[in-house]
Every structure is written in structure tokens, then in C-alpha cells.
Amino acid sequence: MNDTDSLLTRYAIRLGDDAMVHGQRLCEWSSNAPTLEEDLALANVALDYLGRARMLYSLAGNLCGQSEDELAFTRDTRAFQNLLILELPRGDFAFTLVRQFLLDEFEHLFFDALTASANEMLAAIAGKTRKEVAYHRRRSQEWLRRFGLGTAESARRAQAALDTLWGYVDEMFAVDDLEATLIAEGIAADRAVLRATWQAAVTHAIEAAALTVPDTTWRIEGGRQGLHTEHLGHLLSEMQFMQRAYPGLSW
Amino acid sequence: MTNRNLLPLWEVFVRGRRGLDHIHVGSLHAYDAEQALEYARDAYTRRGEGASIWVVESRHITASQEADAESFYDPMDDKPYRHATYYKLPDAVDNM
To answer: Among partner residues B28, B34, B46, which is closest to A37 by beta-carbon distance?
Structure first.
């Protein structure tokens, strides 16, 4: 495996981890959502993330000789590279949808940029993902507005979610050496340049919902180095249980 | 499932392909039309059935009652000339 392939493998794995962990969190709403209709909708979104994780893991697996299942179910917390914001517990319904909103606004820009990747597989995955994100974004924007302009309680919960999540958003735009190298080769999308557009879109939507952009100054990162919150281990223990208990099990 | 009764009920119509009619496929609860459309997409078209979706709030549908059937439809039956099948078509007009 040459250097570029090795970097591409790690890049696909971290994007796959983002999708896998977030999809798992969304799955936790199955049978727990406020209405049956919303239950179905959240599960559909979760399935989009699961499908995305499979595509990215399979891209990585073809290069590094591991199966999708091995990548998803046999690596421990330190090997997972997902963004911290995605592993936080699902919280209440407002927390889940506000996180989804912040993520959708980012992914809308990110996967658009990634369709220009010099790697055809990545570009194709991004092209498919972009359509899914357009739908997720439409939903989460509406929910944000509904929370903010709904009742005092829904606005309070949405604002609390924003305040909790704000310190985690910087990591979405962090470019490390791995990504810098792949950006230079035209393979990765540059997240850092998306920040200003994202900030403007998010600010507009938050204010339109009569909510406030948080002024918290603390920031936390670490997911890309495998330095996680205490929540990821618990998530993995549930997600990986079957493969841990019955190694190599297949349907 | 609390507050379910606060959500309006919507009827969903899906058109499978261009050229076909919208067919009633079911109903669902949603806060507003926009959300009803999205829930309809998730509940009824995930296997690629849809080319377009209509939603209408159920309370806007005025329906005839089954008890009215006699007065609504029976009068047609004894006047066969009201039905297209009563008329013989010339052979030249093949399938009409």
C-alpha cells in the first residue's frame, strides 16, 4: 500500500466512524420517538448514516484488507476517529435534532465539496450522500424553527442543546496533517474553509427561530486522535456486543 | 405518544409514476403540511414508489356516507343509457 492509499484508508475510516457512531445514536430513538411518524423518520435518517458508514468502511477495507464488520465491530474506543459531538448521548428530542441541524448544515457544505474529490469512489459516495443530506437538512431546519417558535419549553430545550453543543462544533472544521496532505492531493475536502459559510447559515437559522447563538468560549477536540468522551465506550459496548460475544458471526 | 390528539390528521396520496393518478395510501399525524409531506415520504415512499405526494388535512375532506348510497347511486342503475357500455361501438372504434 503506497502512502496515499494509507492516508486515504485512514480518511475513509474516520468519515465512516462519524457516520457509524451518529447512526447508532439515532437508532436509539427507535420505539422511543415522540410519535410513530417521527420514529419512522429518525430511523430512516439513521439508515442513511448506516449506509454511508458501510460505503466508507468498504472503501477503506478494500485498501487495508479488513471487512466492514471488522472495522465497525472489532476496534476499540482509541481506534475510533469520530468527532466528539457525534458520540454525546442522544439527550432529549431537542438535543438530538439541534445536533442534527448543526451537523446537516456542515455536511451540506462538506459533501458538496467532496464530490470534487480526485478519488472517484469518494466523489461517488459524496454525490449519493449529498442528496440524503439535503433531505435531513430540510427536516432539521424545520424542527429548529418549530422548537424556537413553539412553546417556552421547546425553546428552552433547544437553547440548552445549542449551549451544550457549541463547544464541540470547532472540531468539525479542524484539519490535521492527514487531511492537509490529502487536501493538497485533491482527495479530501477542506473543512476549514467551510466555517464562515456554515457560521452565517447557522446564525441565520438560529436567529430566525428566535434563539441565540451561544457565546461559550470553551472548545474541545480529540476524536481524530482517538481521545474520546466517556460516552463512546458505552455506545460501542452495545453496538459491538454481538461480534464481541460471537466473533465472526454473520447473518 | 403523549399529545397525540393535538396533532392534526392528514390523508396521503402518492402518484407512483408520471401519467398515473394520485392514489390514497393512508393517513398520518403531523404538525403542519410541510411536516406531513416529509412524514409521508418516510412512511409511504421509501421503496421508491413515489413520483409525487399530496397531503391534505383530513378535516378538509367532505365525504358521502354509506347510508346515502341508495339515493346517490341506485337511480343510475335503471337507466342503462346513462352508462357508456349501453352503446354499441362501430368496429372501427376499437378500444374506447
So the answer is: B28
